[in-house]
Design goal:
The mean pLDDT is 80. This protein folds into 2 domains: 43 residues, no CATH class; 47 residues. The chain is 81% helix and 0% strand. The longest helix has 32 residues. It is mainly α. The protein is elongated. It contains 4 helices and no strands.
């Protein structure tokens, strides 16, 4: 049958032919042109996007925690107005 050496030679010849073909040059030129266009468009990479998304999620979590803490502190500072407001709305006391 065929030897491994023959398969390797055929594979190498095909690789050399493809590497030297105009299609490969065209592919390289298109990739370079697209990279230049994308760099002018001020796009972010997927990695940068994922990092910013994580930062935003952490910031939202901190904001939620701070809002909750603020509500607790406000309730501790002003417990009487909340009770008085409830009493003012009670129709039984106004009769």
């Amino acid at each position: 049958m065929f030897s491994q050496k023959l398969f390797d030679e055929i594979s190498n010849k095909i690789s050399e032919t493809i590497a030297a073909s105009p299609a490969k040059d065209l592919e390289k030129n298109i990739k370079a042109m697209m990279a230049a266009t994308f760099s002018r468009m001020d796009l972010v990479t997927r990695e940068e996007f994922d990092i910013q998304q994580e930062v935003l999620a952490q910031t939202r979590a901190q904001l939620t925690a701070m809002e909750s803490r603020l509500a607790q502190l406000e309730a501790q500072l002003n417990p009487a107005p909340a009770v008085e407001a409830a009493a003012d709305n009670d129709p039984a006391q106004h009769d």
